[in-house]
Here is the input.
Amino acid sequence: MPARPVAGAPERNPGRKTDGPERLARLQRDFAAHIRDPDGHPAPVDVEDRRMAIYRRLFFNNVSSLLASNFPVLRSLCDDNRWAALVREFYAEHRCQTPLFPELAGEFLRYLQDVRGTRPADPPFLLELAHYEWVELALSLDERELNDVPADRAGDLLQGRPVLSPLARALTYRYPVHRIRFDFQPQLPPSEATHLLVYRNRDDKVKFLQLNAVTQSLLQLMLAEPGLNGAELLHRIARSIAHPDPRRVLEGGSGVLADLRARDVLLGTQPH
Here is the structure.
């Protein structure tokens, strides 16, 4: 005999599900979509526009302010309207892969490189400048400590194998990004590339140094051939540039290695 329903109890319907969680999720999606792109997505119908306007300003201004502090030179090149448009494009078009504010600059760089593409009004150096400013920020936030890297700080840099700092970046750009400012915006790249070394020293200060092509090649060779000692690295460089007197390369290179160690770019030699 089938059970009788209890008087006053709600009727059971296994096929019916409450739409509460689904409605909440839909509201959250609509809310977020509108905050990201107010022109492309209408606000949720149940939320007063005055309240939505507060959230629109709050979220956008926070992101705009944070990116301006992360990319100060790029910000200085844009008037307020141009900067707001660039931030809005990022805000609306990019899907960040991290909720952490310190990593927002990296997301902005990924957007510029991989999503946005080049726009007609962009300065030709935009991507390189953004990358250079991001490197400075990334090194300042890197949690690694140079004193934790095994190295003989007094080791012979010619006979030993130099230890390159993990907080040093040897970079090559088409434009002289370290010189760009409001009153210096080159529209064509110079005939020679710009080689820059950006690094953080033991005092946790981020520095940069402009390199010549030979020193740049030396640092790249260190990365590619960590098993070579300093003399072997310099002999390789002498052969690669076909220098008529390799001894002069060895003598000059010895001074370069010592200078890099004094700057904490080289931390010493690999311990035995």
User: Anything to note?
Assistant: The domain at 148-272 is CATH 3.90.930.50 (Outer Surface Protein A; domain 3).
